[in-house]
Amino acid sequence: MSEKFNVTAMPVGVVGLGLMGSSIVAALLISGHPVKAVAPVAADAENARERISNQLHKCVTAGLIHSSDEFEGNLTISRDYEVLKPCQVVIECVIEKRDIKSQVYKKITSVVDRDCIIGTNTSAIPISELQNHIDFPERFLGIHFAEPAFMTRFLEITCGKLTEETFANRIFKLAHEWGKEPTLLKKDIRGFITNRLMYAMYREIFYLIENGTATREDLDKAFRYDAGSWMTLMGIFRRMDYMGLKDFDAILKSIFPKLSNAASVPDIMQTLVQEGARGIHNDNGLYPYDPGEGRQWDEAFTRFNKDIHHLAANYSEENVKEQLKS
Amino acid sequence: MSEKFNVTAMPVGVVGLGLMGSSIVAALLISGHPVKAVAPVAADAENARERISNQLHKCVTAGLIHSSDEFEGNLTISRDYEVLKPCQVVIECVIEKRDIKSQVYKKITSVVDRDCIIGTNTSAIPISELQNHIDFPERFLGIHFAEPAFMTRFLEITCGKLTEETFANRIFKLAHEWGKEPTLLKKDIRGFITNRLMYAMYREIFYLIENGTATREDLDKAFRYDAGSWMTLMGIFRRMDYMGLKDFDAILKSIFPKLSNAASVPDIMQTLVQEGARGIHNDNGLYPYDPGEGRQWDEAFTRFNKDIHHLAANYSEENVKEQLKS
């Protein structure tokens, strides 16, 4: 792995140590930050160190770091918000509930300096809405990672109505030191960029399943071998340019009116969530899993992460343009 | 490249030698078929051999074949439909216009045997509709490739109302010999699988652009580094299982009603098509291109194709499951 992470002494805080929060902690640790992590949920406080340690081992496997020891030493886990005191950035990753987040913000702001940047990893609640629950709201913004946060280059920074751009720019710059390819969204739109695009596709794929058009396996296969064959290189607009644009107006005109406009949660998903399905995490999901199989998928993804991370690095916009010149 | 293509003496016909038709010819050639190609458009008849030759060279570069010579010798290009006579499969790839396709089908069926399978690469017109224009319609079906057809594993087989399943099964089996991961769609739905999913995303991305939410660059970047980091491995349902399902109902409920339901062609696309923009093919598209830059993107994609093809092969469903057992 050719990345160099700038080791910086700046402590960063994380509140909420579920799956995503732990993964963000690992991302910050391998970037060189001391991390002050607060676990509002008791079970998380107990399990988080082991979970993060496992994630750091995945980083070793992926060649992102040589050994996890020095990074583990940089981690403080506590149930007490006081540990956040020295932080200049705190990222909140608690459950997607407004009232809980609001309480968490009160506890954070009672401890940190007034210019400490406070970010939320939310993908469901508008930044401008959450901003109402915070003192000095101009330092509040969305810092949205993709799972697993320590491997993916994706990072979406979203300003709310009251966010001051200097704070967003500071995170944008910092994100590069985290090895990310950040996007900066100046307008606070529900679902931000990536979720809107993905959920547009989710809406359609549930429609296809519910209408018995194709099996889950076939839908996933079509997606992996069509979109999956160009997406890492191109993005959507570049793909259209590659395809030549010519027939697109005819196809758009014929397909748009036929697409699903569903506004409600699909039955399949509602049923699964009600029965406590957690996908690969408890071997109960949209696919059938043998006991322990979910864990195996997780390991396959760790290996895949490494490969696609390398591949994406080779085909960064910069690299492609560099080759254009030469 | 570890693929073995079964060399078969079975001649396959292709009608229509535009970009996609040529690419399909190359796919069939490297699978070992003698290909009988008909070019209804005079300019295509002239340019197709060179274009296909270039594509075979890309196959050499990608390590799919060692040399292009023997394959080029297997190619017949003609403007006369008579060359299709020995074919047991003919794939139509002409322009997306019903009347033109209907004329082409008349010419094909007047030459081939009555049990010759006739496939169309259409992505805009329902199979059941085109089927009305063909004698012995039970042997007619959709055979939908993804560009570049000689590299991607995607192949979508779609039955119309009158298609007999034995013919679809025959193509499904043959597709594996072409090195594809085919999907078989028994219900004829507008846009089939992959286009519906992609156009659902297109609809949303045009909405985001038209509302000034983000730049094209940022939208593509978010897509490449989020979806592009897992798509080749997982597909959509498996990704949801990986994410744990838990928060999905909350997010679906909040985002679905906000997504674009647009039914008309976006202005941006209409304008580009009207002014003759062909994307990377004439350096005029959704992105700005310096003269010759489009070609360079094409070359970058050829290199990328090779890498992602390898990667996808390493993480085929079979391989992952094999590793689960061991």
Q: What would you say this structure looks like, in words?
A:
2 copies of one chain form a homodimer. By secondary structure, chain A is α/β, with parallel strands linked by helices. Chain A folds into 2 domains: 12-190, NAD(P)-binding Rossmann-like Domain (Rossmann fold, 3-Layer(aba) Sandwich); 195-325, N-(1-d-carboxylethyl)-l-norvaline Dehydrogenase, domain 2 (Orthogonal Bundle). Chain A contains 13 helices and 8 strands. Chain A has helices spanning 19-30, 42-61, 69-72, 98-109, 127-130, 165-177, 192-210, 216-225, 231-243, 248-255, 267-274, 293-314, 317-325, and strands at 12-15, 35-38, 75-78, 89-92, 117-120, 140-145, 154-159, 181-185. In chain A, strands 3-2-1-4-5-6-7-8 form an 8-stranded mixed sheet, sandwiched between helices. In chain A, helix 1 packs across helix 2. The longest helix of chain A is centred in the C-terminal third of the chain and has 22 residues, at 293-314. The two termini of chain A are 24 Å apart. The model of chain A is unreliable at 1-7 (pLDDT under 50). Chains A and B meet through strand 8, helix 7, helix 8, helix 9 and helix 10 of A and strand 8, helix 7, helix 8, helix 9 and helix 10 of B.
Furnish the topology, listing elements before pairings.
Two copies of one chain form a homodimer.
Chain A: E1 12-15, H1 19-30, E2 35-38, H2 42-61, H3 69-72, E3 75-78, E4 89-92, H4 98-109, E5 117-120, H5 127-130, E6 140-145, E7 154-159, H6 165-177, E8 181-185, H7 192-210, H8 216-225, H9 231-243, H10 248-255, H11 267-274, H12 293-314, H13 317-325
Parallel strand pairs in A: 1-2, 1-4, 2-3, 4-5, 5-6, 7-8
Antiparallel strand pairs in A: 6-7
Helix pairs in contact in A: 1-2
